[in-house]
Design a protein that fits this description.
Helices cover 31% and strands 21% of the residues. It is of the alpha/beta class. It folds into 2 domains: 297 residues, FAD/NAD(P)-binding domain, CATH 3.50.50.60; 133 residues, FAD/NAD(P)-binding domain (3-Layer(bba) Sandwich), CATH 3.50.50. Strands 1, 2, 3, 4, 5, 6, 17, 18 and 21 form a 9-stranded mixed β-sheet that branches. A hairpin with a 4-residue loop joins strand 5 and strand 6. Helix 6 packs antiparallel against helix 7. The longest helix has 25 residues. The protein is globular, with a radius of gyration of 24 Å.
Length: 502
């Protein structure tokens, strides 16, 4: 017997959508387990607190980006960051989660000690001092990208004398009223920033190396608002959520099965917004829809800014930055007082935490995902990496629910170590799959650090929510792979298996 229990049963890293969701699920489904959320920032919200660029909003509808247990009440289903933060704040207060959050705590390292069945976690506080916590289970809700460093394409700004800003670190004092702005990039961030800045700037140019597939939809979901007016709130939310999940699933599969038809539909909607004489080449990528994530244009805001002459889209390659603007390789010059480098994010695994087991560093790229939630031969740890083709929270919800069931099984059986065991013999039989069937730059750049992926369950990070939800809920926890033990003698079998797997 250990002299004292760990500080917490579960340590949740990150007070964003994933971490708050796990805490809420624990309150409902694993209430006898203690938990603490550690958050490196001074506020909750994760992405929605970090990013402060103009127009910051969701690029998924909030009936699926919202939690399965908490209805989205706002009129707009495409919501801005303040509305999303209000939703999260309400949840942490109504469910008593806020007292469990420790802000200003950055996790540096986490070592699982098998003989104690607990994680020893080192943290850095806001004042630079170090502190230590222990927990039986570690739940990583730290997101998917590097909070400290965005992707740097290596631009040389040469003679350019204006302001250069990256959306991840937007300056509070940036005055762009009446200014000429060039936004480099064509992803979701650029598509959000351009129409928002165009309201006050002199002109905003979106400079893209390659176009992105875009689709427009109303920011308000008329069906959702109608249902909420005539039905009980939770029932209306469930119906809308089901509708939107099915529509997203169908549209993704349609894009993969009939890409030419989807291209025609997307072009037709853009033509309706910009007029028949629009520059079709600027909105025709060299890849099929949903080979990269589609960019949402709510209420045609980008197209309206272009049509009004407040914004434009230019396709080209940068030759150099000059005094007063950007010179392209074809000789064109784009005047700029401000350059916004919306060039993307850097992927990060496990929040860049130095994870180890009994002092041995864990190399995530050498381990397989287990049910998109845990990792091969890594005890008492779960993570959230959301869907690329659907809302992040859909995975966060099913992973939280699954981990709560695992925790309750551990409590019922008196076990304290849970491990998805993969022997060398079994691993040799696995056929590996590309972990991400997406061509997006940030995905391709980050593949080398990502965990392994099998072509089939359970050693897989799947990209089909409806399948995952059913399997995570209905497949038995005792599947012959997930092994529950205690430290000491009755862990001998698993210890032998893990040792053989090293």
């Amino acid at each position: 017997m250990l002299a004292s229990p760990p500080d917490f049963d579960v340590l949740i890293v990150g007070a964003g959508i994933s971490g708050i969701g796990m805490a809420a699920h624990m309150g409902m489904k694993a209430p006898h387990h203690s938990y603490c959320i550690v958050e490196r920032r001074d506020n909750l919200g994760g992405t929605w607190d970090l990013f402060r660029y103009p127009g910051i909003r969701s690029d998924s509808d909030m009936h699926t980006l919202g939690y399965d247990f908490e209805p989205w009440r706002h009129e707009k289903s495409i919501a801005d960051a303040p509305a999303i933060l209000e939703y999260l704040d309400r949840i942490v207060d109504e469910r008593g989660i806020r007292p469990h959050i420790r802000f200003g705590h950055k996790v540096l390292s986490a070592d699982f000690r098998s003989d104690e069945a607990r994680w020893h976690v080192e943290l850095e506080k806001a004042d630079g001092s170090r502190t230590h916590m222990t927990a039986n289970f570690l739940y990583l809700g730290a997101g998917y990208y590097d909070y400290d460093e965005p992707y740097d394409p290596g631009f040389d700004f040469g003679e350019f004398e204006g302001r250069v800003v990256h959306p991840q670190f937007w300056p509070e004092d940036l005055d762009y009223k009446g200014k000429q702005v060039v936004v480099i990039g064509s992803g979701a961030t650029a598509v959000t920033i351009v129409p928002s800045m165009a309201k006050d700037a002199g002109h905003v140019t979106m400079l893209q190396r390659t176009p992105t597939w875009m689709f427009a939809r109303p920011a308000k979901d008329r069906i959702a608002n109608f249902l909420r007016a005539i039905l009980p709130e939770k029932l209306a939310y469930r119906i809308t959520r089901f509708k939107n999940i099915k529509m997203q699933d169908l549209s993704f599969k349609m894009a993969r099965e009939k890409p030419e038809k989807v291209k025609q539909t997307l072009h037709k909607k853009i033509a309706a917004a910009l007029g028949p004489d629009y520059d079709k080449a600027a909105f025709t990528p060299p890849y099929n829809p949903w080979e990269q994530r589609l960019c949402l244009v709510p209420d045609d805001d980008l197209f309206r800014a272009i049509k009004a002459g407040k914004a434009s889209v230019v396709t080209g390659h940068i030759a150099r930055f000059e005094k007063g603007g950007v010179r392209l390789t074809d000789g064109r010059f784009l005047p700029a007082d401000i350059v916004v480098t919306a060039t993307g994010l850097k992927l990060a695994v496990a929040g860049k935490i130095a994870v180890s087991v009994d002092g041995e560093p864990v190399k995530f790229n050498e381990r397989f995902y287990y049910k998109g939630c845990m990792f091969s031969n890594l005890p008492n740890l779960a993570v959230v990496f959301g869907y690329l083709n659907a809302s992040w929270t859909l995975r966060a919800d099913i992973n939280s629910d699954y981990v709560c069931r695992v925790l309750e099984h551990m409590r019922a059986t008196g076990t304290s170590i849970v491990t998805p065991v993969l022997t060398p013999e079994e691993e040799a039989k696995i056929i590996e799959d590309d972990i991400f069937d997406f061509s997006s730059g940030y995905i391709q750049r980050g593949k080398a650090i990502m965990p392994k992926n099998s072509i089939s369950y359970p050693w897989r990070l799947n990209q089909e929510y409806l399948v995952d939800r059913k399997r995570m809920k209905e497949d038995p926890i005792l599947d012959g792979i997930l092994t529950f033990t205690r430290p000491g003698a009755n862990a001998q079998q698993v210890a032998e298996q893990l040792e053989a797997a090293e």
